[in-house]
Amino acid sequence: MPHLTLPIGQGGPVLDIVIGVSQARQNALTANKQPVPPSVRIRGLVDTGASCTCVDPSILASLQLSPTGTTTMHTPSTGASPGTANLYDASIVLVHPQLSLTFFNQAVAESVLAVQGIHALIGRDILAKCLLTYDGQSKLFILAF
Q: In this predicted structure, what is the pLDDT of residue 128?
């Protein structure tokens, strides 16, 4: 099984991801001879507490994405009542020099994250397709797929 072995930094299990428009959006833009916004390389925190992958609104705006729906989300700041977040269709690539894992049509929720030094949370929707090992003593995490 291919895998990434990466250090756990001060910010936790963080890795580079590339986010772009979904494959369906890219096809529609190309068919209509419209430019496709360039993908963006960002830092994402692996978060087993996040049920879905979340992306900072600044990144979603740079990709010129429009909401495709909404979802309810519980966060530490919402307390017992869930908040509502916009959903967007995107493509996400977990990148590493040796290998990558691509999700061509991935729903992502909008969440303000840049203030934490990251632009994405890699949630259980993506982690469900992976094997995650968190080795705190060795300060390494392994993501296999």
A: 96
| d(C-alpha 76, C-alpha 84), whole Å | 14
Task: Give, in words, the CATH class of 14-130.
Answer: mainly beta
Query: 0.85 cut: is pTM over it?
Result: yes
The chain-wide mean pLDDT, for the chain, equals: 93
pLDDT in tens, 88-132: 999 999 987 777 889 999 999 999 999 999 999 999 999 999 999
- Where exactly are the structural domains of the chain? 14-130
Tokens for 24, please give them. Answer: 């369906």
Residue 112 CB partners (closer than 8 Å, separation 6+)? 56, 57
Query: In one letter, which amino acid is 23?
Result: Q
